[in-house]
Amino acid sequence: MSLANWEIVIGLETHAQLNTASKIFSGASTAFGAAPNSQACAVDIALPGVLPVLNRGAVERAIRFGLAVGGRIAPRSVFARKNYFYPDLPKGYQISQYELPVVSGGGLSIKVGLPDTAEEKFVRLTRAHLEEDAGKSLHEDFHGRSGIDLNRAGTPLLEIVSEPDMRSAAEAVAYAKALHALVRWIGICDGNMQEGSFRCDANVSVRPKGSDTLGTRREIKNLNSFRFLQQAIEYEARWQIETLEDGGRIHQATVLFDPDTGETRAMRSKEEAHDYRYFPDPDLLPLEIAPAWIDAVKAALPELPEAMKARFERDYGLSAYDAGTLTAARETAAYFEQAAVLGNAKLCANWMMGELTARLNREEKDIAAAPISPAQLAGLVARLADGTLSGKMAKEVFDALWGGEGQDADAIIEARGLKQISDSGALEKIIDEVLAANPKSVEEFRAGKEKAFNALVGQAMKATRGKANPQQVNELLKKKLGA
In this predicted structure, what is the pLDDT of residue 386? Predict the structure, then answer.
């Protein structure tokens, strides 16, 4: 098999669960984790005579998404019945949108590769439409039988469909991560992949390099982690290439990914749209969105990541990489800005991306749960910037703040006597004593041994119990030694 002779073509269909308190067509709760079938009302289980009522909050979230990706908000869209039989679909059809979706067009910029050499790419979006989720079939702990939980039935989803613009698993993962970050940033979805709030279907096909004709695609369903998305696409692409090179044919199908084996397997032959017998839902009027409604949603939209990234570069003098890292999540960006307006912005960024992130990762905490507040971090870096603390001392103060030892850096510095010695007169006296006490090191340095200089620095730091300003110690030593 030679990957160099083939091009992989990938499009993603992503289901983002909208974070409304109630379902899209009923007043039942959408809270996760309730006892099976305890949040399924008469509308959700399709009792005779019930009628759906559209949730305004779900529509506003769809508008918010359309504006964020530069899409077109349809002034008139229609809900349709998508007919198919499945045990967890009580009505025998799913209410979705087909010919006239609420959002069309737009796109997302992604970056693939290492920070210094990352290539930017624009992935176009075909559409985003509103629909209801189905229930869930449970096949475990039922004594050989299956159970149905209809708590998810009617939960509002925004299905986001990309164009087949991605050419590798890495690009697909970068797109999925960017989309995941965006829906969380604009506050329409909590993005919890373990709970099924954000899940992807990947349409994968291959074609000979240089060909403009799309190959036959297979759809990998319900990928709920970025790692599984990458593994599934890589396996599926290899399988399709090997099949074609061995003289076989690819048949359009829906496939599942097995994380235990790392393989995809066919679930059923792929249905085309006409198999679903779409037709407008007679119980729901067309959805009409007036310009004033769009304007109101736009006015409430938060500053978007790209705009904030550019502002961080401009206003705080951050590099593109630092600004991009700090705007990867809205909570991180908010933490940084609160700290930056109080202290040295660049140092705040460095400490956030270094010590703070490392500690959060070790303790498996989100930045919202960080024991050190933005104001406390700003106070710490201010003392580092003005020479009160050395880098080593600053880490000691950071540890104390993390452990809740003091209200701020100044209190800890005072309590522990950590103030750095920066007075040149006092340092000069200490260095004279160090030179007098270590004539052998002085002689070795003058004979060309650089390690002897480091030994003298160490002696000076030891004499000051680590409180001397290392830069000043270096400068004064070089001056005294005539270096």
Answer: 83
